[in-house]
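Model it.
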Amino acid sequence: MQGIDVIRLRINLAHDIGLVRLGNMDLVHIIDGLIGIIVMGGGWFLGSQAREIKRIEILLNRTREDYATRTDMRDDMRTISESLHRVEDKLDRVLQKET
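Modeled.
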């Protein structure tokens, strides 16, 4: 707490003797403006992070809905393979009839 009191005392002393004035602005106004800019920047950053997290959550949910498990893929590939074997057998029979 003593450090803050020393800083305030120095600012007040500099203000009293006229060292802190920049035109019509006091150092306090400049510091307030900088703090406002920092807070505003932090708010923008947090808002953009929240929007990005929401976007990623939506993409994750879509991925979960569209995801096919390994067993599902194996079953589908087995069905396709069986269908192709039936087509090959039919072609073989047709070609054997022609000869």
